[in-house]
Every structure is written in C-alpha cells, then in structure tokens.
Amino acid sequence: MQRLFLVGFMGCGKSSFGRRLAARLGWEFVDTDAEVERRAGMSVAEIFAVHGEERFRELEREVVDELCVTDGALSRQIVALGGGTVCRQGVMERLNGAGTTVYLRMPPSRLVRRMSAAGRARRPKIAGMDDAELRAFIENALPEREKWYKKANFVVECGGASDGSVLRMLLQHIDNQNIK
Ligand code: S3P
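A: This is the predicted complex of the input protein with shikimate-3-phosphate.
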C-alpha cells in the first residue's frame, strides 16, 4: 500500500513532517485541512465562525471518504489528517484499510512549544489561548483523543527527538513496511 496517513494532536507536525517526507520520497502530499479549505473557499477558522464546527466535520468526512476510495495502488501519497478528523467511530479503521497509519505522539509541553500565537489563531479550538490555557486544554483532550490515535498501525514516540530524527523514524517505518 503506497499511502501513509499521519495522525495526532494539533501541532505535532503532521503537515510539516508530511510535506518533508513527501518531498524526500517524491510522493504527493495531501493535507485534509487544506483540502477542506479549498472546497469551502474559506479558511478553517472562517468555516467554524460562519457555518459552525459540525459543518467543518462534515467537510472533513467527505474528504476522508474520497481519499479512501481512491485506488491506493496508484497513489503514492503522504496524507496529513486534521487532529480531530479521526476521533470518530470508524475513521481509523477506514484509513487502516486504505493505507498505513502512523501516530506522531508528542508530550503536551512540546505541543505547546510548537504552536505559535499565529498557529493557535488559525485553529479555532485553541485560538487566543496562552501557554497555560493551551497546556490545560491539551492535557484534558489528549487522553480521550489518544483512544483513537492509538488505533494507528505505528506509533512514533517523538518525545524529545529532534525534527531530523522524527523524519528518520518515519522514513525507517516506510522502509521496514516496504511501502515504497
Ligand atoms: C482540529 C485540528 C486542526 C483543524 C481544526 C480542528 C482539531 O488540524 O482540523 O482546527 O479538532 O484537533 P491540525 O491538527 O492540522 O492542527
């Protein structure tokens, strides 16, 4: 299967690692948030503000549905999923059937450090939060969300690993699984 799905909490680097990985492998890079924005013709923050979260979740579902029916044999893709996309019955199972899933697991302190004020502002669920508020939000949401993330085929423990080593771990997984 030539498709890798990256899942995990907001800020863990699904898009940035995904883009670097795709560039390294010469594969296509797909970001579900960007795909939702393209279809709606507005940013994620605007979708939440104008139509509400439920509409955003519907658009996410449509994007996932289409990704999963595309013929995997033809698509060499790295797909970065939004942090909440997989936190619903059946989504991880669908992704596991359509490719290889990897959970980028990162401690709350590092997630907080990785999300700048601008990065928070474009994510409506955490917009305007200071470090303490964001940390409390993550510590509250992560245990529930990990129930979904941990259904991934692999967990990459990012812990204190440098970005370079996380990228190497991801490449290693691709090599070991023969998904090249
Ligand atoms: C969300 C995560 C965001 C984006 C939206 C909601 C979430 O994606 O889909 O702001 O509920 O976790 P990233 O995980 O790429 O930040």
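The pocket of shikimate-3-phosphate is lined by residues 10, 14-15, 33, 44, 82-84, 123-125 (CB under 6 Å). The chain has one domain: 3-176.
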